[in-house]
Automatic annotation (TrEMBL):
Record's keyword terms, sorted: Cytoplasm, Elongation factor, Protein biosynthesis
Xref: HAMAP family: EF_Ts
Organism: Aphanocapsa feldmannii 277cV
Xref: NCBIfam families: tsf
Protein name in the entry: Elongation factor Ts
Localization: Cytoplasm
The family this protein is said to belong to: Belongs to the EF-Ts family.
One Gene Ontology cellular component: cytoplasm
Length: 218
């Protein structure tokens, strides 16, 4: 069902949750405000949003090495206190996020707002020049390009990825749910992915040249 913007706004004001989370909660509960509020509370989203402005300077640098040692990840996740940083729930979250990054080679940024403008401009240039748009009216082309760019930027952002252990939620929803459970602000700050041999050119043997050189030596 279509969810009226007025209803989304009302739920946001009563729970403090984000607009998109409120819209999803209402969609999942057929527009029932009471059920939507409970949905947000179960997910820990409502309480997480209220903590989002609090300083998170503690945390953990976690790692994940994929089987075979060909892919490795370091990720920094912040919370508010050292006590929480030492806890099992927080450690589990950091491990899951590191594993998520290893499984998503296309992801380069934590959130879409971190993507540099020149990357956005580059994507717009690519999409605008595609052949399938040539015959479409200008206004329609613009809407299609905007939609495609938004989709592409989400592909590059960690928090927008479906969680590998539960595709019914995004990584951002996982973080919010854990924050609501733990009772502290949690922020994914940065990450680095290492792929074995990335950026290196493997030396290829020139068999013909090798044979020729051996003949010359004789």
């Amino acid at each position: 069902m279509a969810i009226p913007a007025k209803l989304v706004k009302q739920l946001r004001e009563s729970t403090g949750a984000g607009m998109m989370d409120c819209k999803k909660a209402l969609s999942e509960t057929d527009g029932d405000m009471t059920k939507a509020t409970l949905w947000l509370r179960r997910k820990g989203i409502a309480s997480a949003e209220k903590k989002a402005d609090r300083i998170a300077a503690e945390g953990l640098v976690g790692s994940y090495i994929h089987t075979g040692g060909r892919v490795g990840v370091l990720v920094e996740v912040n919370c508010e206190t050292d006590f929480v940083a030492r806890g099992k729930a927080f450690h589990s979250l950091v491990h899951d996020i590191a594993m998520q990054i290893a499984a998503c080679p296309q992801v380069e940024y934590v959130r879409t707002s971190d993507i540099p403008q020149h990357i956005i401009d580059q994507e717009k240039s690519i999409e605008s020049g595609k052949d399938d748009l040539a015959s479409k009216p200008e206004a329609l082309r613009e809407r299609i390009v905007v939609g495609r760019i938004a989709k592409r930027l989400k592909e590059l952002a960690l928090l927008d990825q479906p969680f590998i252990k539960d595709s019914g939620m995004t990584v951002e929803e996982l973080v919010k749910q854990t924050a609501g459970t733990i009772g502290e602000n949690i922020q994914v700050r940065r990450f680095t992915r290492f792929t074995l041999g990335e950026g290196m050119k493997a030396k290829k043997a020139d068999f013909a040249a090798e044979v020729a050189s051996m003949g010359a030596a004789d």
